[in-house]
Design brief:
Helix content: 25-40%
Number of domains: 1
Oligomer: single chain
Order of helices and strands: HHEHHEEEEEEH
Strand order of the largest sheet: 1-2-3-4-7-6-5
Number of helices: 5
CATH topology: Protein Transport Mog1p, Chain A
Radius of gyration: 19 Å
Structural class: alpha+beta
Length: 162
Amino acid sequence: MARRLLTALLAAALLAVIAWSARPQSGGELIRRALDARTTLRQAQTLIAVGGVAEARRYEQPLSLAAGAPVAVPDLDRLGYRLTALRFGEGGAELFYQGRDGETLTLCLHPSDGSVHLDRYQRGALRLVLWQDERLAMTASAELPTVRLQKLAAHAYAGLQP
């Protein structure tokens, strides 16, 4: 009986590996688009300094237009991140948060390509979490441990809901 169980577990593990490796590899394209949007927005000249979420709420309409969907400004103060600036550019917008220890968290918002996706990516010390639904794509980026960035990205994504 133990041998049958072991054989069944190994077969299930093999099927899981095959299914995982056969999944569509659209994540690479979405990460590339997120990095491109981040680069394009960095070239934009419009950087608006704000003194927190309350002040930034007056920019929710242009933020929604840039994101391609109705959004609210995420409040991450409880997690130790204060909104300090917004940037609008072609195809999206960025929100800059400053952490208690001086670290910067950037949220890049742009219209979704219609697919649903969640992915992580690392380039050097910079980590990214891409969170996309049918209407909106959000990339959270920072030089933070992956688990911390994922938690911040989850709270930010939930906070985008108007």
